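Hi, can you check this record?
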Amino acid sequence: MPDPEALRQAALRASWERDHRVGRRRRWWRWAVWAFWRYGLPLLLVAATVTAFVIIALARTQEP
């Protein structure tokens, strides 16, 4: 039969480790979402705008 105090300590350690893993994952997701809204979305919009202008410019040069 395991010692009750050792069992309690093992359960507390496992709970603490699980809490820290979840916390790290949540922080990573928060950072990823923030970075997307801060940098990713503007870069995506600029790339889409440039692509549209290039397509329009190429279409105009190919008109008869």
